[in-house]
UniProtKB/TrEMBL annotation:
InterPro entries: FAD-dep_OxRdtase (IPR006076), FAD/NAD-bd_sf (IPR036188). Gene3D superfamilies: D-Amino Acid Oxidase, subunit A, domain 2, FAD/NAD(P)-binding domain. This is FAD-binding oxidoreductase. Keywords: Oxidoreductase.
Amino acid sequence: MRDATIAEKTTPYWWDAAPVRPIPARPLPQAVDVAIVGAGFAGLSAGLVLAREGRSVAAFDAMNPGEGASTRNGGITSGNIRLDYATMAKRFGEARAIAVEAEAHAARQFLYRFIAEEGLDCDLQRPGLFKGAIGYAQYDAMARGAEALRKAVGIETWAVPFAEQTAYVGSDFYRGGAVRMDIGGLHPGKLHGEILRIAQEAGLGVHSGTPVTGVTRDGDGFRVATASGTVRARQVLVCTNGYTDGAAPFLRRRLVPVRSRIIVTEALAPEVMARLMPKRMMISEGRQLGHYYRPTPDGRRILLGGRESGHRGNPVGPSLLMRAGLAQIFPELEGVRLSHTWFGNVAMNRDMLPRIFEKDGILYASGFCGSGTVWAPWIGMRAAYKLLGQGARAESAFDFRPPASIPLYRGDPWFMPTIIQGYRLQDRIAMLRARR
Protein backbone atom coordinates (compact mmCIF):
# COMPACT_ATOMS: atom_id res chain seq x y z
CA MET A 1 0.00 0.00 0.00
CA ARG A 2 1.27 3.48 -0.84
CA ASP A 3 2.55 5.51 2.13
CA ALA A 4 0.48 8.71 1.83
CA THR A 5 2.88 10.56 4.15
CA ILE A 6 5.57 10.55 1.46
CA ALA A 7 3.83 12.40 -1.37
CA GLU A 8 0.53 12.52 -3.17
CA LYS A 9 2.20 12.04 -6.55
CA THR A 10 5.38 10.40 -7.79
CA THR A 11 5.29 12.25 -11.10
CA PRO A 12 6.89 15.66 -11.73
CA TYR A 13 5.06 18.68 -10.39
CA TRP A 14 5.53 20.28 -13.81
CA TRP A 15 3.41 17.61 -15.49
CA ASP A 16 0.28 18.83 -13.69
CA ALA A 17 0.16 21.95 -15.90
CA ALA A 18 2.17 20.63 -18.85
CA PRO A 19 1.75 16.85 -19.18
CA VAL A 20 4.09 15.03 -21.54
CA ARG A 21 2.20 13.28 -24.29
CA PRO A 22 3.00 11.06 -27.26
CA ILE A 23 3.12 12.70 -30.66
CA PRO A 24 0.44 11.32 -33.02
CA ALA A 25 2.02 8.58 -35.11
CA ARG A 26 3.25 9.56 -38.55
CA PRO A 27 4.95 7.53 -41.27
CA LEU A 28 8.73 7.51 -41.15
CA PRO A 29 10.36 9.45 -43.97
CA GLN A 30 12.56 7.41 -46.28
CA ALA A 31 15.30 10.02 -46.13
CA VAL A 32 16.04 13.31 -44.36
CA ASP A 33 18.84 15.83 -44.36
CA VAL A 34 19.36 15.45 -40.60
CA ALA A 35 18.26 12.79 -38.12
CA ILE A 36 18.29 13.84 -34.47
CA VAL A 37 18.39 11.28 -31.67
CA GLY A 38 16.50 12.72 -28.70
CA ALA A 39 13.66 15.24 -28.50
CA GLY A 40 14.48 17.08 -25.29
CA PHE A 41 15.61 20.69 -25.06
CA ALA A 42 18.79 20.09 -27.08
CA GLY A 43 17.28 17.99 -29.87
CA LEU A 44 14.25 20.24 -30.37
CA SER A 45 16.33 23.43 -30.29
CA ALA A 46 18.67 22.00 -32.91
CA GLY A 47 15.74 20.81 -35.00
CA LEU A 48 14.15 24.27 -34.83
CA VAL A 49 17.27 25.93 -36.25
CA LEU A 50 17.71 23.32 -38.97
CA ALA A 51 14.06 23.34 -40.05
CA ARG A 52 14.00 27.12 -40.27
CA GLU A 53 17.06 26.92 -42.51
CA GLY A 54 15.11 24.71 -44.91
CA ARG A 55 16.54 21.33 -43.96
CA SER A 56 14.35 18.23 -43.74
CA VAL A 57 14.73 17.01 -40.16
CA ALA A 58 13.34 14.16 -38.07
CA ALA A 59 13.80 13.81 -34.31
CA PHE A 60 13.38 10.39 -32.68
CA ASP A 61 12.70 9.87 -28.98
CA ALA A 62 12.50 6.54 -27.17
CA MET A 63 9.95 8.05 -24.75
CA ASN A 64 7.49 10.87 -25.09
CA PRO A 65 9.29 14.08 -26.10
CA GLY A 66 10.53 15.82 -22.96
CA GLU A 67 9.82 12.87 -20.67
CA GLY A 68 13.48 12.76 -19.65
CA ALA A 69 15.43 15.48 -17.86
CA SER A 70 13.88 18.37 -19.82
CA THR A 71 10.67 18.21 -17.75
CA ARG A 72 12.08 16.60 -14.60
CA ASN A 73 14.49 19.35 -13.46
CA GLY A 74 14.07 22.21 -11.02
CA GLY A 75 13.60 24.89 -13.66
CA ILE A 76 16.48 27.06 -12.39
CA THR A 77 18.37 28.91 -15.14
CA SER A 78 21.74 28.47 -13.46
CA GLY A 79 23.96 27.34 -16.33
CA ASN A 80 26.42 26.23 -13.67
CA ILE A 81 29.89 25.01 -14.52
CA ARG A 82 30.97 22.35 -12.05
CA LEU A 83 34.65 23.23 -12.27
CA ASP A 84 35.88 26.47 -10.75
CA TYR A 85 37.94 28.88 -12.81
CA ALA A 86 41.32 27.82 -11.37
CA THR A 87 40.65 24.13 -12.09
CA MET A 88 39.51 24.85 -15.65
CA ALA A 89 42.56 27.00 -16.34
CA LYS A 90 44.87 24.27 -15.09
CA ARG A 91 43.13 21.49 -17.01
CA PHE A 92 42.22 23.22 -20.30
CA GLY A 93 44.25 26.43 -20.36
CA GLU A 94 43.40 29.96 -19.28
CA ALA A 95 41.99 31.01 -22.65
CA ARG A 96 39.37 28.26 -22.62
CA ALA A 97 38.56 28.90 -18.96
CA ILE A 98 37.82 32.57 -19.70
CA ALA A 99 35.78 31.61 -22.76
CA VAL A 100 33.71 29.11 -20.76
CA GLU A 101 32.84 31.69 -18.08
CA ALA A 102 31.88 34.26 -20.70
CA GLU A 103 29.79 31.74 -22.64
CA ALA A 104 27.88 30.71 -19.52
CA HIS A 105 26.71 34.30 -19.09
CA ALA A 106 25.92 34.60 -22.82
CA ALA A 107 23.90 31.36 -22.76
CA ARG A 108 21.65 32.63 -19.96
CA GLN A 109 21.05 35.94 -21.69
CA PHE A 110 20.32 34.09 -24.94
CA LEU A 111 17.71 31.91 -23.21
CA TYR A 112 15.90 34.98 -21.86
CA ARG A 113 15.94 36.66 -25.28
CA PHE A 114 14.81 33.47 -27.01
CA ILE A 115 11.83 33.13 -24.67
CA ALA A 116 10.87 36.78 -25.15
CA GLU A 117 11.36 36.94 -28.91
CA GLU A 118 9.50 33.68 -29.57
CA GLY A 119 6.74 34.56 -27.11
CA LEU A 120 7.18 31.32 -25.14
CA ASP A 121 4.76 30.98 -22.21
CA CYS A 122 6.87 29.30 -19.53
CA ASP A 123 6.48 31.34 -16.31
CA LEU A 124 9.93 32.92 -16.59
CA GLN A 125 10.86 34.91 -13.48
CA ARG A 126 14.20 36.60 -12.82
CA PRO A 127 14.51 37.20 -9.07
CA GLY A 128 18.19 36.20 -8.89
CA LEU A 129 19.93 33.40 -7.01
CA PHE A 130 21.35 33.29 -3.47
CA LYS A 131 24.13 30.77 -2.83
CA GLY A 132 24.59 29.92 0.83
CA ALA A 133 28.02 29.51 2.41
CA ILE A 134 28.57 26.59 4.79
CA GLY A 135 31.16 28.43 6.87
CA TYR A 136 32.77 31.85 7.15
CA ALA A 137 35.87 30.76 5.21
CA GLN A 138 33.62 29.71 2.33
CA TYR A 139 31.78 33.02 2.60
CA ASP A 140 35.08 34.90 2.23
CA ALA A 141 35.87 32.87 -0.91
CA MET A 142 32.39 33.56 -2.30
CA ALA A 143 32.80 37.28 -1.66
CA ARG A 144 36.11 37.34 -3.54
CA GLY A 145 34.62 35.27 -6.35
CA ALA A 146 31.62 37.59 -6.68
CA GLU A 147 33.87 40.61 -7.02
CA ALA A 148 36.09 38.88 -9.59
CA LEU A 149 33.05 37.74 -11.60
CA ARG A 150 31.54 41.21 -11.58
CA LYS A 151 34.75 42.72 -12.91
CA ALA A 152 35.56 40.00 -15.46
CA VAL A 153 32.14 39.34 -16.98
CA GLY A 154 29.99 42.25 -15.83
CA ILE A 155 27.48 40.13 -13.89
CA GLU A 156 25.44 41.90 -11.22
CA THR A 157 26.59 40.00 -8.14
CA TRP A 158 27.47 40.77 -4.54
CA ALA A 159 28.27 39.15 -1.20
CA VAL A 160 25.65 38.90 1.56
CA PRO A 161 27.06 38.75 5.13
CA PHE A 162 25.41 36.55 7.74
CA ALA A 163 23.85 39.57 9.47
CA GLU A 164 21.85 40.36 6.30
CA GLN A 165 21.09 36.78 5.25
CA THR A 166 17.47 36.58 6.41
CA ALA A 167 16.54 39.27 3.87
CA TYR A 168 17.26 36.62 1.21
CA VAL A 169 16.41 33.30 2.87
CA GLY A 170 14.58 32.75 6.16
CA SER A 171 17.18 30.42 7.66
CA ASP A 172 20.27 30.64 9.85
CA PHE A 173 21.73 27.45 8.34
CA TYR A 174 24.24 29.38 6.22
CA ARG A 175 27.01 31.77 7.18
CA GLY A 176 26.25 34.38 4.57
CA GLY A 177 26.50 33.89 0.83
CA ALA A 178 26.45 35.59 -2.53
CA VAL A 179 23.74 36.83 -4.89
CA ARG A 180 23.72 36.66 -8.68
CA MET A 181 21.02 38.55 -10.54
CA ASP A 182 21.51 36.85 -13.94
CA ILE A 183 19.83 33.64 -12.75
CA GLY A 184 16.10 33.03 -12.55
CA GLY A 185 13.49 30.31 -12.72
CA LEU A 186 10.90 28.99 -15.15
CA HIS A 187 8.45 26.15 -15.72
CA PRO A 188 10.49 23.55 -17.65
CA GLY A 189 7.45 21.54 -18.70
CA LYS A 190 5.88 24.59 -20.31
CA LEU A 191 9.20 25.62 -21.88
CA HIS A 192 9.63 22.21 -23.49
CA GLY A 193 6.07 22.23 -24.74
CA GLU A 194 6.53 25.65 -26.29
CA ILE A 195 9.80 24.71 -28.03
CA LEU A 196 8.12 21.55 -29.32
CA ARG A 197 5.27 23.67 -30.70
CA ILE A 198 7.43 26.15 -32.60
CA ALA A 199 9.79 23.42 -33.84
CA GLN A 200 6.88 21.45 -35.30
CA GLU A 201 5.47 24.63 -36.82
CA ALA A 202 8.85 25.15 -38.48
CA GLY A 203 8.65 21.69 -40.04
CA LEU A 204 10.50 19.41 -37.61
CA GLY A 205 9.12 15.86 -37.72
CA VAL A 206 9.01 14.43 -34.19
CA HIS A 207 8.54 10.70 -33.59
CA SER A 208 7.78 9.68 -30.00
CA GLY A 209 8.06 6.14 -28.68
CA THR A 210 10.53 5.48 -31.50
CA PRO A 211 13.88 4.42 -30.04
CA VAL A 212 16.90 4.50 -32.30
CA THR A 213 18.57 1.10 -32.24
CA GLY A 214 21.68 1.87 -34.27
CA VAL A 215 23.40 4.28 -36.67
CA THR A 216 25.64 2.96 -39.46
CA ARG A 217 27.52 4.52 -42.33
CA ASP A 218 25.86 4.33 -45.74
CA GLY A 219 28.00 5.88 -48.46
CA ASP A 220 28.16 9.61 -47.87
CA GLY A 221 25.38 9.45 -45.25
CA PHE A 222 23.95 7.21 -42.56
CA ARG A 223 21.26 4.60 -42.02
CA VAL A 224 19.37 5.28 -38.80
CA ALA A 225 17.64 2.14 -37.56
CA THR A 226 14.62 2.70 -35.31
CA ALA A 227 12.00 0.48 -33.72
CA SER A 228 9.61 1.60 -36.47
CA GLY A 229 11.91 1.26 -39.47
CA THR A 230 15.05 2.68 -41.05
CA VAL A 231 15.66 6.21 -42.28
CA ARG A 232 18.54 7.41 -44.42
CA ALA A 233 20.10 10.67 -43.22
CA ARG A 234 22.81 12.86 -44.67
CA GLN A 235 23.82 13.97 -41.16
CA VAL A 236 23.15 12.68 -37.62
CA LEU A 237 23.04 14.61 -34.35
CA VAL A 238 22.86 12.76 -31.00
CA CYS A 239 21.33 14.68 -28.05
CA THR A 240 20.46 11.96 -25.54
CA ASN A 241 22.39 13.17 -22.45
CA GLY A 242 21.31 11.39 -19.21
CA TYR A 243 19.15 8.87 -21.10
CA THR A 244 21.84 7.65 -23.51
CA ASP A 245 21.47 3.95 -24.29
CA GLY A 246 23.21 1.28 -26.33
CA ALA A 247 22.32 2.95 -29.63
CA ALA A 248 25.15 5.45 -28.95
CA PRO A 249 27.88 3.25 -27.42
CA PHE A 250 30.69 5.78 -27.88
CA LEU A 251 28.75 8.42 -25.94
CA ARG A 252 27.44 5.96 -23.37
CA ARG A 253 30.97 5.10 -22.22
CA ARG A 254 31.55 8.81 -21.49
CA LEU A 255 28.35 9.89 -19.75
CA VAL A 256 27.25 8.70 -16.32
CA PRO A 257 23.51 9.01 -15.53
CA VAL A 258 23.11 10.31 -11.97
CA ARG A 259 19.75 10.40 -10.22
CA SER A 260 18.51 13.78 -9.07
CA ARG A 261 15.55 13.65 -6.68
CA ILE A 262 13.08 16.53 -6.32
CA ILE A 263 10.32 17.07 -3.78
CA VAL A 264 7.59 19.71 -3.64
CA THR A 265 5.81 20.69 -0.44
CA GLU A 266 2.10 21.06 0.03
CA ALA A 267 0.82 24.62 -0.39
CA LEU A 268 2.18 26.74 2.46
CA ALA A 269 0.56 29.74 4.10
CA PRO A 270 1.43 33.06 2.44
CA GLU A 271 3.08 34.33 5.63
CA VAL A 272 5.28 31.21 5.78
CA MET A 273 6.43 31.68 2.18
CA ALA A 274 7.10 35.37 2.84
CA ARG A 275 9.24 34.47 5.87
CA LEU A 276 11.18 31.57 4.34
CA MET A 277 11.59 32.91 0.79
CA PRO A 278 11.33 36.69 1.23
CA LYS A 279 12.66 37.63 -2.22
CA ARG A 280 11.35 34.52 -4.00
CA MET A 281 14.93 33.82 -5.13
CA MET A 282 16.42 30.61 -6.43
CA ILE A 283 18.72 29.09 -3.77
CA SER A 284 21.81 26.88 -3.96
CA GLU A 285 24.50 25.82 -1.49
CA GLY A 286 28.25 25.43 -1.21
CA ARG A 287 28.16 21.73 -0.28
CA GLN A 288 29.32 18.95 -2.60
CA LEU A 289 25.87 17.37 -2.24
CA GLY A 290 24.14 20.65 -1.62
CA HIS A 291 20.46 21.15 -2.24
CA TYR A 292 18.93 23.56 -4.69
CA TYR A 293 15.51 24.98 -3.97
CA ARG A 294 13.05 27.63 -5.07
CA PRO A 295 9.43 28.72 -4.81
CA THR A 296 7.13 27.19 -7.38
CA PRO A 297 6.11 29.75 -10.03
CA ASP A 298 2.85 30.47 -8.21
CA GLY A 299 4.79 31.27 -5.02
CA ARG A 300 2.78 28.82 -2.88
CA ARG A 301 5.16 25.85 -2.44
CA ILE A 302 8.85 25.10 -2.04
CA LEU A 303 10.59 22.78 -4.50
CA LEU A 304 13.85 21.20 -3.32
CA GLY A 305 16.21 18.86 -5.15
CA GLY A 306 19.51 17.08 -4.77
CA ARG A 307 21.45 13.96 -5.72
CA GLU A 308 20.29 10.48 -4.75
CA SER A 309 22.80 8.09 -3.20
CA GLY A 310 21.63 5.11 -5.26
CA HIS A 311 20.59 4.42 -8.82
CA ARG A 312 17.77 1.94 -8.23
CA GLY A 313 14.92 1.37 -5.80
CA ASN A 314 11.68 2.98 -4.65
CA PRO A 315 11.24 6.66 -3.79
CA VAL A 316 10.43 6.37 -0.07
CA GLY A 317 13.95 6.53 1.40
CA PRO A 318 15.30 9.24 -0.93
CA SER A 319 12.15 11.34 -0.49
CA LEU A 320 12.42 11.19 3.30
CA LEU A 321 16.08 12.15 3.03
CA MET A 322 15.19 15.18 0.91
CA ARG A 323 12.47 16.19 3.35
CA ALA A 324 14.98 15.92 6.21
CA GLY A 325 17.33 18.18 4.24
CA LEU A 326 14.52 20.71 3.85
CA ALA A 327 13.87 20.63 7.60
CA GLN A 328 17.60 21.11 8.29
CA ILE A 329 17.38 24.41 6.42
CA PHE A 330 13.88 25.35 7.62
CA PRO A 331 13.20 23.61 10.98
CA GLU A 332 9.56 24.78 11.00
CA LEU A 333 8.95 22.51 7.98
CA GLU A 334 9.79 19.36 9.94
CA GLY A 335 7.31 16.72 8.82
CA VAL A 336 5.74 18.92 6.14
CA ARG A 337 3.49 17.05 3.73
CA LEU A 338 4.78 16.61 0.20
CA SER A 339 2.64 16.92 -2.88
CA HIS A 340 5.19 15.47 -5.34
CA THR A 341 8.39 13.44 -5.39
CA TRP A 342 10.21 12.25 -8.51
CA PHE A 343 13.64 11.70 -9.98
CA GLY A 344 15.40 12.27 -13.29
CA ASN A 345 18.81 11.48 -14.70
CA VAL A 346 21.46 14.13 -15.15
CA ALA A 347 24.54 13.27 -17.21
CA MET A 348 28.03 13.77 -15.79
CA ASN A 349 31.34 13.27 -17.59
CA ARG A 350 34.95 13.21 -16.43
CA ASP A 351 35.59 16.77 -17.64
CA MET A 352 32.38 18.09 -16.03
CA LEU A 353 31.76 20.37 -19.03
CA PRO A 354 28.99 20.31 -21.64
CA ARG A 355 30.28 19.27 -25.02
CA ILE A 356 29.90 19.41 -28.78
CA PHE A 357 32.12 16.91 -30.59
CA GLU A 358 32.24 14.74 -33.68
CA LYS A 359 33.14 11.07 -33.92
CA ASP A 360 33.05 9.02 -37.14
CA GLY A 361 30.97 11.70 -38.82
CA ILE A 362 28.26 11.76 -36.12
CA LEU A 363 27.87 15.00 -34.17
CA TYR A 364 27.13 14.88 -30.43
CA ALA A 365 25.68 17.63 -28.22
CA SER A 366 25.47 16.42 -24.64
CA GLY A 367 26.94 16.28 -21.11
CA PHE A 368 25.04 19.12 -19.46
CA CYS A 369 26.06 18.07 -15.93
CA GLY A 370 22.83 19.04 -14.20
CA SER A 371 22.38 22.47 -15.82
CA GLY A 372 20.56 21.56 -19.01
CA THR A 373 17.82 24.19 -18.76
CA VAL A 374 20.38 26.72 -19.97
CA TRP A 375 22.96 24.53 -21.68
CA ALA A 376 20.77 22.17 -23.71
CA PRO A 377 19.08 24.81 -25.92
CA TRP A 378 22.36 26.70 -26.31
CA ILE A 379 24.51 23.68 -27.14
CA GLY A 380 21.80 22.16 -29.34
CA MET A 381 21.60 25.31 -31.44
CA ARG A 382 25.40 25.66 -31.70
CA ALA A 383 25.52 22.06 -32.94
CA ALA A 384 22.83 22.83 -35.54
CA TYR A 385 24.82 25.78 -36.86
CA LYS A 386 27.85 23.50 -37.10
CA LEU A 387 25.90 21.03 -39.23
CA LEU A 388 24.86 23.96 -41.42
CA GLY A 389 28.47 25.04 -41.85
CA GLN A 390 27.81 28.44 -40.25
CA GLY A 391 31.14 28.68 -38.48
CA ALA A 392 30.72 32.02 -36.69
CA ARG A 393 27.30 31.14 -35.27
CA ALA A 394 28.49 27.63 -34.33
CA GLU A 395 31.49 28.85 -32.35
CA SER A 396 31.54 27.57 -28.78
CA ALA A 397 34.11 27.05 -26.04
CA PHE A 398 32.54 23.62 -25.54
CA ASP A 399 33.33 22.41 -29.05
CA PHE A 400 36.48 20.37 -28.58
CA ARG A 401 37.66 16.82 -27.98
CA PRO A 402 35.22 14.19 -26.64
CA PRO A 403 35.13 13.60 -22.87
CA ALA A 404 37.39 10.80 -21.74
CA SER A 405 35.83 7.36 -21.46
CA ILE A 406 35.34 5.78 -18.03
CA PRO A 407 37.26 2.55 -17.43
CA LEU A 408 35.13 -0.59 -16.93
CA TYR A 409 31.94 1.38 -17.58
CA ARG A 410 29.35 0.35 -20.18
CA GLY A 411 26.21 2.15 -19.00
CA ASP A 412 25.45 0.77 -15.52
CA PRO A 413 26.64 3.33 -12.91
CA TRP A 414 27.38 0.68 -10.28
CA PHE A 415 30.02 2.91 -8.70
CA MET A 416 27.79 5.95 -8.01
CA PRO A 417 26.66 4.96 -4.47
CA THR A 418 30.30 4.85 -3.39
CA ILE A 419 31.08 8.20 -5.01
CA ILE A 420 28.00 9.82 -3.44
CA GLN A 421 28.96 8.50 -0.03
CA GLY A 422 32.44 9.96 -0.54
CA TYR A 423 30.94 13.37 -1.31
CA ARG A 424 28.71 13.06 1.75
CA LEU A 425 31.79 12.41 3.91
CA GLN A 426 33.51 15.46 2.42
CA ASP A 427 30.48 17.57 3.32
CA ARG A 428 30.52 16.31 6.92
CA ILE A 429 34.19 17.15 7.26
CA ALA A 430 33.61 20.59 5.73
CA MET A 431 30.77 21.25 8.20
CA LEU A 432 33.01 20.30 11.11
CA ARG A 433 35.87 22.47 9.85
CA ALA A 434 33.47 25.38 9.47
CA ARG A 435 33.14 25.36 13.30
CA ARG A 436 29.45 25.96 13.11
